[in-house]
Design brief:
single chain; Uracil-DNA Glycosylase, subunit E; 8 helices; 6 strands; globular
């Protein structure tokens, strides 16, 4: 068997049709479109991770947005959550620009990789438990391939609980904004409220709060030597 690679993982993710409800929804959204994006050719497929293969920071979200990643084909691209995320990554020195609008907009990540627990846009942004579990092997392979990662940032409790299941650490601190979880192998998890409109429009999450998470991630990474 050939060794796994991020390219093989990309191919396997983008051709997956294992969850009937998610397949139906992502393709329905891609066909009906939103009026503001009527001239777009929607991606309408599972959305792979994106970033530096030698990343030391892994950002984990919930799932692609119906008219964000499901439209553009790149995770956290083309929606307000992505504006917050890539703006913060740029401020912390992980991205060459603060905006992300399409797969070919010139955005490059340095020492960072962005992924999601579930790869298809779910109705109401709520994947079912079985859909989460069906997607789990993709995330497990990604974690193995991104061997330089020393800091994880989980955007929301869903992403935190998925990562916790994969890493199987104990004790498992309760989710909260800015919580740090040191792992036995020296890696660190930082949890953050998700930059969804539900959180940003209400003030539950502010830009200084969000930026501070990535400033802290940068400090942790800069203080740790590479494993190889």
């Amino acid at each position: 068997m050939a060794p796994d690679s991020l390219q093989q993982l990309y191919n396997d993710i983008t051709t997956c049709r294992l969850c009937p409800r998610l397949v139906q929804w992502r393709e329905q959204v891609a066909a009906e479109k939103r009026a503001a994006y009527k001239d777009w050719h929607y991606w309408g497929r599972p959305v792979p991770g994106f970033g530096d293969p030698d990343a030391r920071l892994l950002v984990v979200g919930l799932a692609p947005a119906a008219h964000g990643g499901n439209r553009t084909g790149r995770v956290f691209t083309g929606d307000r959550s992505g504006d917050w995320l890539y703006g913060a990554l740029h401020k912390a020195g992980f991205a060459n620009q603060p905006t992300s609008t399409s797969r070919d907009d010139g955005l490059l990540l340095h020492e960072a990789y962005v992924s999601a627990a579930v790869r298809c846009a779910p109705p109401a942004n709520k994947p079912a438990t079985e859909e989460r579990d069906t997607c789990a092997p993709f995330f497990r392979r990604e974690l193995a391939l991104l061997s330089e990662v020393s800091v994880f940032v989980c955007l929301g409790s869903f992403a935190y609980h998925v990562l916790a299941r994969h890493l199987a650490f104990r004790p498992r601190p309760a989710f909260g904004h800015g919580v740090e979880v040191p792992l036995a192998d020296g890696r660190v998890i930082i949890t953050s409220y998700h930059p969804s409109q539900q959180n940003t429009f209400t003030g539950k999450l502010t830009r200084p709060m969000f930026d501070a998470v990535f400033t802290r991630a940068r400090a942790l990474i800069d203080a740790q030597p590479r494993s190889s």
